[in-house]
Design a protein that fits this description.
192 residues; 2 domains; Muramoyl-pentapeptide Carboxypeptidase, domain 2; eight-stranded mixed sheet; 42% helix
C-alpha cells in the first residue's frame, strides 16, 4: 500500500470515528433532553410541563424525526399519572404531538411551559370526580385511555390556547374559562 493511500485511509477512519462520536453524543443529549440538544437536532420535538397538583416539572425531548424516544415516553407516562391514586397510565404519544403543534401554532418556538391540570385518570378517580362535579366529567372520559389532557399556558390567554388547538382539527377541544383550562384530546374532532 502506498504511503498516500495509507494516509487517506487513516484520515477517513478519523473522520468516521469523529462523526460516530458526534452521533453518540447527540443521541445521549436527546436522552438527557437538554436545551442544547434541541438546538442541535431541529427535528426533535420537546415539551416543558409543570404539574399543578404534584408540583413536578419535566423538560424533555420526546421524539426525533419519526421516532418516539421510549425512555422519554415512560417519563411522560409517569409524570402524567393519576395524581390522586398514583396509578400510571399509557399516554397516547399523539397527544404529545398535539401539545407540540399547539405551541407551534401559537407562534412560539420557545419551549413554553404547559401547566397540567389533569393527565391520566384511573376509572376510580374518574367515577369519584363524576359524582362530585355535577356531571362535568364524562363517564367514559378519554383521560382514562391516556388520550386527553387539561392544560393552560401562563402568559397565553385561554381563548388563544383554545383557538390554536381548534385550528389543528386534530381531536377534541373543550374550553373551561371558569376553571381556567383547555381540554385537548386525540379523539374525534369536536369542540365544546
Amino acid at each position: 500500500m502506498t504511503r498516500q493511500k495509507l494516509i487517506s485511509l487513516q484520515a477517513s477512519r478519523r473522520f468516521f470515528l469523529h462523526r460516530s462520536a458526534q452521533a453518540m453524543l447527540l443521541g445521549g443529549a436527546l436522552g438527557l433532553a437538554g436545551r442544547s440538544a434541541r438546538a442541535a437536532a431541529p427535528s426533535a420535538r420537546s415539551l416543558v410541563l409543570d404539574h399543578t397538583h404534584t408540583r413536578e416539572r419535566i423538560d424533555l425531548v420526546y421524539a426525533s424525526g419519526e421516532h418516539y424516544l421510549p425512555q422519554a415516553l415512560g417519563s411522560l407516562n409517569h409524570f402524567l399519572r393519576d395524581h390522586s391514586s398514583g396509578e400510571v397510565g399509557q399516554i397516547d404519544p399523539q397527544l404529545f404531538d398535539l401539545l407540540h403543534a399547539v405551541r407551534l401554532a401559537l407562534g412560539s418556538g420557545a419551549p413554553l411551559s404547559y401547566q397540567i391540570i389533569s393527565g391520566y385518570r384511573s376509572p376510580l378517580t374518574n367515577a369519584r370526580l363524576r359524582s362530585t362535579r355535577g356531571g362535568g366529567v364524562a363517564s367514559h372520559s378519554l383521560h382514562m385511555e391516556g388520550m386527553a389532557i387539561d392544560v393552560r399556558l401562563p402568559g397565553v390567554p385561554l381563548a388563544e390556547l383554545r383557538d390554536a388547538a381548534l385550528s389543528l382539527k386534530a381531536g377534541g377541544v373543550g374550553y373551561y374559562p371558569r376553571d381556567q383550562f383547555v381540554h385537548i384530546d386525540t379523539g374525534r374532532v369536536r369542540s365544546w
